[in-house]
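Sharing a chain and its predicted structure for anyone who wants a worked example. Both blocks are below, sequence first, tokens second.
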Amino acid sequence: MTASKRASGPSLGSDLKRVDGHVIQPAEYDELPELSDEMLARGKVNRGGRPRSANPKRLISIRLTEDVIQRWRATGPGWQTRMAESLSRLAPKEGGGQTGK
């Protein structure tokens, strides 16, 4: 490493110790506006996370032979998604199941 390069990345230049050590004075509360009914009405609750899927996936348990699993795994990352897509294409149509005889 050359002398002109820093050993670590650039600093943000913040003084967190000074910020943490600050005690809010009563006069500082005067700078804050009063909350009005209009301000509260504009407020939104952000629950975070992903939006709910219209077609969520369910966890199930299925037994497959080892050779089937190994062949799918050999196709690389995303093999479970590709397997689900293949099963979806091959799935019987709704109401078209076999009748018990």
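Comments welcome. Residues 79-90 form the longest helix (12 residues).
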